[in-house]
């Protein structure tokens, strides 16, 4: 029997979506020496040229000069320097040389390998950490699918790409960095790196006054503890946007569940370190998926609808040979954007 997603799209859209899913899967499955931040950025550039997407990459000293203190801090331990990639659709026309204002904005976590930095992971936990770029891979796959499907809705994406490894210049636990938003952030744990780089990407996207913002990341193990390996969690600061995401996921046949935007835990994000406003670790063992989402929300202007998808579970499936990417999320994002103007937000079936 044809699933709900296959029945909801025409043949051309299905072909476009299939290519996007294959791309996201391929990128996520590549090994760390096959997909450095620079190689990822080059793949994005080649696809932008093919599909006439807008493209811009910021790296080196420009990252620091432009205020991306979080991306710089997490990426500076590696010999493979960080890159911030921006992509937008449509990329041509009177204003095609600059990202569109009022777009649907997407941010995807792009950690091409994650050792935890100086807050080093156990050795057994590292093998699968090549898949920590799944958020960025999903966003890129979705943009490719949307462009091929002839989407008319403007979309603006930011992909912070880093390799989080220990080195002589690595960020140290307790370091305070100045973020793109101007906030001071205390990096208590360098293995809580995804929220740090996404915060800079979200601050950038917010400067274009988007209609709505969505971030996607393999962000926390606790979302897997809460929902198991096959269900993602959506944290919606804006209830309407969260409902739209749930409805899109239901049509796409991708399992997702609504999680609380529990501002009662917001005090866990406040830092007392000199020069810091916020911290990247709640200093508690519980509720960490919630506080991760709340921290991201601190970097999105309050007037902009914002939601976050934590898909650490369904981004990969466990096999005897280790984790294998699934391409999860591409279909949901495409469904969300393609039907944005129709306002479809009924989510009677969520999992």
What report would you give on this structure?
The chain is an alpha/beta fold and 351 residues long. It has a single domain (4-338), classed as Aminopeptidase, CATH 3.40.630. Helices cover 35% and strands 20% of the residues. The protein has 12 helices and 14 strands. The chain has helices at 4-8, 11-29, 37-51, 61-65, 69-75, 123-126, 134-148, 194-206, 222-227, 239-252, 288-297, 330-338, and strands at 54-59, 83-89, 104-108, 110-114, 155-164, 175-178, 184-187, 212-217, 232-236, 256-259, 278-279, 306-310, 316-319, 322-325. The strands form 3 sheets. Strands 1, 2, 3, 4, 5, 8, 9, 10 and 12 form a 9-stranded mixed β-sheet that branches. A 3-stranded mixed β-sheet has the order 6-7-11, with helices on one face. It has a two-stranded antiparallel ribbon with strand order 13-14. The longest helix has 19 residues, at 11-29. The model has no long low-confidence stretch (mean pLDDT 94).
């Amino acid at each position: 029997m044809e699933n709900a997603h296959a029945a909801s799209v025409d043949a051309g859209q299905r072909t476009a979506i299939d290519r996007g899913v294959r791309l996201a899967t391929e990128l996520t499955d590549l090994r760390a020496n096959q997909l450095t931040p620079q190689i990822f950025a080059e793949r994005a550039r080649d696809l932008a040229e093919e599909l006439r997407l807008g493209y811009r990459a910021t790296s080196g000293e420009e990252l620091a000069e432009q205020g991306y203190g979080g991306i710089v801090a997490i990426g500076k331990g590696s010999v493979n320097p960080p890159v911030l990639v921006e992509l937008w659709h449509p990329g041509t026309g009177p204003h095609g040389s600059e990202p569109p204002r009022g777009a649907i904005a997407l941010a995807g976590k792009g950690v091409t390998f994650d050792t935890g930095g100086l807050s080093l992971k156990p050795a057994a936990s590292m093998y699968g950490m090549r898949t920590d770029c799944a958020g960025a891979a999903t966003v890129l796959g979705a943009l490719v699918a949307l462009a091929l499907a002839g989407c008319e809705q403007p979309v603006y994406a930011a992909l912070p790409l880093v390799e989080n490894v220990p080195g002589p210049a690595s960020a140290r636990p307790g370091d305070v960095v100045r973020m793109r938003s101007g906030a001071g952030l205390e990096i208590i744990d360098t293995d809580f790196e995804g929220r740090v780089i996404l915060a800079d990407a979200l601050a950038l996207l917010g400067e274009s006054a988007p209609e709505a913002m969505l971030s996607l990341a393999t962000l926390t193990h606790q979302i897997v503890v809460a929902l198991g390996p096959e269900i993602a969690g959506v944290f919606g600061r804006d209830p309407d946007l969260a409902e739209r995401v749930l409805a899109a996921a239901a049509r796409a046949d991708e399992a997702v569940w609504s999680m609380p935007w529990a501002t009662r835990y917001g005090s866990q994000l406040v830092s007392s370190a000199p020069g810091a406003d916020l911290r990247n670790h709640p200093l508690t063992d519980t509720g960490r998926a919630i506080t991760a989402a709340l921290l991201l929300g601190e970097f999105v202007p309050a007037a902009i609808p914002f939601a976050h998808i934590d898909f650490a579970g369904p981004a990969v499936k466990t096999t005897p040979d280790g984790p294998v990417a699934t391409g999860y999320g591409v279909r949901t994002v495409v469904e969300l954007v393609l039907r944005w103007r129709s306002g479809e937000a009924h989510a009677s079936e969520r999992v």
